[in-house]
Write a structure and sequence with these properties.
This protein has 212 residues and is an alpha/beta fold. Helix content is 44%, strand content 17%. The chain has an eight-stranded parallel beta barrel, surrounded by seven helices. Strand 5, helix 5 and strand 6 form a beta-alpha-beta unit. It binds 4-methyl-5-hydroxyethylthiazole phosphate. The site of 4-methyl-5-hydroxyethylthiazole phosphate has 15 residues, from helix 9.
Length: 212
């Protein structure tokens, strides 16, 4: 049975990495292009910024996503997410657990959790997460940062064990989207397939067409 708490209809979750750009302004432009092309769900994931810097960037991205009616998630920092009026927070395995965040935020606040296997996925659901990302499914540009690929078989196993939406992440390109959807992924999450694309608009539209 699907979770009744939240209807998450978005199937494409775009995650930021400002290091792909020469300037912050260039990242905002790419985000705006993706938003224009139809992205409705974005996570600001800039883990190395100080909290003040993050607050500043988050404020800008909140304004931008607000103009396009897109949901904004902030990585890890519940305080920043609440302060700028984000739609939710995306937690890592070392972040506050979802059940503790829920005590502060209430039911309307989205909580996503990054997971890397069946046990973490089951635990995240047990702690009240609204959705999870699962990966890296495939090889990603920075294996060191994200760990070894867990493979499509892990996605199938996770889908048997949890009812909350599962977003496959890690090395997902337009050509791989079909495989992960067939393995049961409710959605796909990505950085480089959109933000490092030669044509951000075209890549976004292609992915969104496929996910319809
Ligand atoms: N978590 C697991 S893999 C990954 C994250 C944040 C990076 C995904 O980046 P890309 O460029 O979509 O492979």
């Amino acid at each position: 049975m699907k979770s009744q708490k939240l209807k998450l209809k978005e199937k494409l979750y775009l995650i930021t990495d400002r290091k792909l750009f020469n300037s912050q302004c260039a990242m905002y432009l790419a985000l705006e292009t993706a938003l224009e092309a139809g992205v409705k769900f974005i996570q600001l994931r800039e883990k190395d910024l100080s909290v003040r810097e993050l607050l500043d960037v988050a404020g800008w991205v909140r304004e931008l996503t607000g103009e396009y009616g897109a949901r904004l998630m902030i990585n890890d920092r519940v305080d920043v997410a609440l302060s700028i009026g984000a739609d939710g927070v995306h937690l890592g395995q070392d972040s506050m657990p979802a059940h503790a965040v829920r005590k502060i935020t209430g039911d309307k606040f989205l909580i996503g959790v990054s997971t890397h296997g069946v046990d973490e996925a089951v635990k995240a659901e047990g702690h009240g997460a609204d959705f999870i990302t699962l990966g890296p499914i495939y090889k990603t540009p920075s294996k060191l940062k994200y760990g070894d690929p867990i493979g499509i078989h892990t996605l199938r196993k996770v889908k048997f064990r949890v009812t909350i939406p599962v977003f496959a992440i890690g090395g997902i390109r337009p050509g791989k989207a079909k495989e992960v959807r067939e393995a049961g992924a409710d959605g796909i999450a990505m950085i480089s397939a959109i933000l490092a694309a030669r044509d951000v608009k075209q890549s976004t539209e292609e992915l969104l067409r496929f996910l319809k």
